[in-house]
């Protein structure tokens, strides 16, 4: 009963000094809001990027020409330039690995392209990509309307196109684009499908500004100058646990296809898609550490403020402490009352801080990408636990000081 009575007494003391309680709780809530808000923002951003990278998954890898990323010179030495992966090499690789995986071939045809409809045209910011029957699967793209390419269209290079949502918005804002015609790169294409909106996170908006045409059609479009198409090869397997085995086999097949001499380095690069996710997890880990440190420093300042206010509370209630001791309250009970009061104040501020932190974190994450509203229960529990710890630490010395007051001197206190 003494413990329950101390809780009631602590709540009565809080109600009797409501303004001071609110101000003290705000100090704690700001600290918790900083901690939970930053960590929620990191989780929200990571969740959004995870969704964006989910198209890459843990069951796919890419093959491209070595040196295709234009790293430039290394330590003053020019990096060897390897020939582009040709269409014949890409299709040969696809045929040899077709029994173990789905192989998607694609080529970047043009960027900064102007696309015209019968009545309007886009800004010169449209990407034209040629892809095969597995391209949508490899990129985890879904159709919102229409259909994918037929075997006939893929084989003979028909002038058909799948457009991104932004093109529909610009050229056909009030009509269904399926069956309509658009023109670009000197050709007229019939729209057979429209992709779902990907949003603005990590290049998703560029996907909304893209047009996909059959791979054979892309090969037929004349190139400016002597430039040659470079083909991107994405291999998607059904069982992620077989990824290392299939990558090893793919390396052997591609060396043979590219005729790389024995004992020399490959003229191509194989990159696991999940390596991007691993890099993302590493970066988000550092961000969480930084966010936790910033939030901890803020809470440290809040705990000092709380201790100062609790010391003031002890001085103001010296006569009350003397009366309680005169009526038989022990030092332990006095200490317990002030500790409970400090913890309750911290928890009240903590609940407010957690709610504000979740809203702030999701608000920041929504600026990066649309990953949905998340509630980080782990950080909620951590935040409230820290509140209890801060309450105990900040209230310990004032509680100890209150319990050591001499009842006679306390009753004389003015």
From TrEMBL:
It is found in: Cell membrane. Residues 293-407 form the ABC3 transporter permease C-terminal domain. Keywords: Cell membrane, Membrane, Transmembrane, Transmembrane helix. Belongs to the ABC-4 integral membrane protein family. This is ABC transporter permease. InterPro entries: ABC3_permease_C, MacB_PCD, Macrolide_Exporter_MacB. It is a multi-pass membrane protein. The chain crosses the membrane at residues 21-42, 289-309, 342-368, 374-394. Residues 21-224 form the MacB-like periplasmic core domain.
């Amino acid at each position: 009963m003494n413990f329950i009575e101390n809780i009631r007494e602590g709540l009565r003391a809080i109600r009797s000094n409501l303004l001071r309680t609110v101000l003290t709780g705000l100090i704690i809530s700001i600290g918790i809001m900083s901690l939970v808000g930053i960590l929620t923002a990191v989780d929200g951003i990571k969740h959004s990027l995870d969704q964006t990278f989910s198209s890459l998954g843990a069951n796919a890898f890419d093959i491209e020409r070595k040196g295709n990323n234009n790293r430039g010179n290394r330590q003053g030495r020019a990096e060897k330039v390897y020939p582009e992966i040709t269409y014949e090499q890409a299709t040969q690789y696809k045929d040899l690995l077709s029994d173990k995986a789905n192989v998607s071939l694609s080529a970047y045809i043009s960027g900064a392209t102007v696309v015209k409809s019968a009545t309007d045209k886009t800004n010169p910011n449209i990407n034209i990509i040629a892809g095969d029957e597995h391209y949508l699967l490899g990129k985890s793209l879904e159709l919102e309307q229409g259909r994918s390419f037929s075997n006939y269209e893929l084989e003979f290079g028909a002038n058909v196109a799948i457009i991104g949502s932004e093109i529909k918005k610009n050229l056909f804002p009030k009509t269904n684009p399926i069956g309509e015609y658009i023109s670009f790169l000197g050709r007229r294409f019939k729209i057979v499908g429209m992709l779902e909106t990907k949003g603005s996170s990590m290049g998703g908006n560029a996907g909304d500004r893209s047009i996909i045409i059959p791979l054979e059609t892309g090969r037929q479009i004349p190139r400016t100058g002597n430039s040659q198409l470079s083909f991107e090869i994405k291999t998607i397997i059904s069982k992620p646990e077989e990824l290392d085995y299939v990558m090893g086999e793919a390396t052997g097949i591609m060396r043979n296809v590219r005729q790389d001499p024995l004992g020399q380095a490959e003229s191509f690069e194989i990159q696991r898609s999940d390596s991007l996710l691993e890099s993302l997890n590493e970066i988000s880990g550092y961000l969480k550490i930084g966010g936790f440190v910033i939030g901890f420093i803020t809470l440290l300042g809040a705990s000092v403020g709380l201790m100062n206010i609790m010391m003031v509370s002890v001085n103001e209630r010296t006569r009350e402490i003397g009366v309680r001791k005169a009526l038989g309250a022990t030092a332990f009970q006095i200490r317990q009352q002030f500790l409970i009061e400090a913890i309750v104040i911290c928890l009240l501020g903590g609940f407010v801080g957690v709610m504000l932190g979740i809203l702030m974190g999701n608000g920041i994450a929504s600026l990066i990408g649309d990953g949905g509203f998340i509630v980080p229960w782990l950080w909620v529990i951590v935040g409230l636990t820290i509140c209890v710890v801060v309450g105990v630490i900040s209230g310990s010395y004032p509680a100890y000081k209150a319990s050591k007051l001499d009842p006679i001197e306390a009753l004389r206190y003015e």
